[in-house]
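INPUT
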Amino acid sequence: MISKLDYGWLVLGLVLLIVGHTWGLFIAPPEREMGEVYRIIYTHVPSAWMALLAFTVTLVASLVYLFRGSFKADAVAEASAEVGVFFNVLCLLTGSIWGKPTWGVYWTWDPRLTTAAIMCIAFAGYLALRRFVLIPERRASWSAIVAIIIYADIPLVWFSVKWWNSLHQLQSSPKTVSPEMYWPLRVAAFAFLFLMIGFIRVRYHLATVRQSVELAEPPELEAVAKESAA
Amino acid sequence: MPRLRLPPDMSESTTIPALPSAGHEHTRPAGPSVFKMTASVIKKDLLIEWRGRARVNSTLFFAILTLLLFSFAMGPQSALLAKVAGGFFWLALLLSSVMSLSESMRIESDNDALEGLKLLPVSPVALFVGKAIVNTLYLFALAMVLLPMVAAVYGVSFSMGVAPLALVMFLGSAAISAPGTLYAAIAVQARARDVLLPMLLFPVVVPALLGAVKSTGLIIEGDPMGQLGGWITLLVAFCVSYWVLCTLLFGRVIED
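OUTPUT
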């Protein structure tokens, strides 16, 4: 069941989100060349990090499922893939909004953008596969296999598009960014991290409840129905 | 967390009693090697294709039609068509590959043929490699049939000759076939199989598609900067990674 700890992560994330974004939007100075437009990085950059982190969790959970056969790992994979797609979409949307005033276009075929888009579509396919397979054991091992194949594809997509076309600016490091800007970014990144952990935990509980219904034998099914009715 | 449980009468007797043996330890007779099994799978699939011609019927005209439709969509500008010929050629091949790949696994799901193969037992490695090789050969043959048609319809000439083009065709076909065969094995057993296979396959083959399209374009238009080697290396890297990865993972796809 969803515990107080899960709500704790979400509340902590929300508080840091408010602090970090207030700091980033109102207190941090405008950027020299981009002016106020740059402030979207406080949402865009953390969401890109969290999408990659969530998909890495999916990969690890998938490997654990294939080697150990634990349905808990499968539930973690399901939860983190869904949360990862959410952050990935957020990253693509905020990136497009930022791209229009800065580059003059919403979309361009840059390695980072293209890789993020392909990753998003590929994991959306992963989530669709999970809906299309009804037998729990098959769904778990097939989706684990698909997750590994998609994850292995990310560096290949990245290098191929990099050769093909490149426009995205190089990533900044704390050394090249003023402390007045990177501190709110750090706070925002931790806010997103805690929110992501909270989301994954809540979604994990939902996945385990669904599994317990799927894997239960008839008498247990009745017990689950009574429990949820109560 | 309830787990799937065996009925009580089955969970007790999971060990199979040893067969009586005359003096020496009973061992299973050694089956044919993986290479032999792979060769048998290839032979079997080619024979089925030769007798039924299901793939030729379903994909050849579809691919030709796709090529024609692409040129209708672009309008009759021969300069523009020659520029995009490589891209359209690979898209037509990729779209046709979906039918060819699902056909290669459909023949195993009919009459539960896959169960029979597993009981023989055919090793999953041999089954995957054999099927992926047949898929590669079929796509390569289709590419070779489409090539003269591309040259005619899009008005292109191959400035670097047919040999490098054949290499790119082969690598591109192999690149589509490795993840394609594995995903077809998943899709054929799932609901909505016709939607699932392209949805899973297309995002994954993007690097191979880029490499194949770029190489084909360079072969058509000439390669003054010497970029062809890099793109072929990318195709080879994709093929090696996915042939190894999918061979390792295929056993888990067809297990019960």
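end of record. The two ends of chain A are 14 Å apart (CA to CA).
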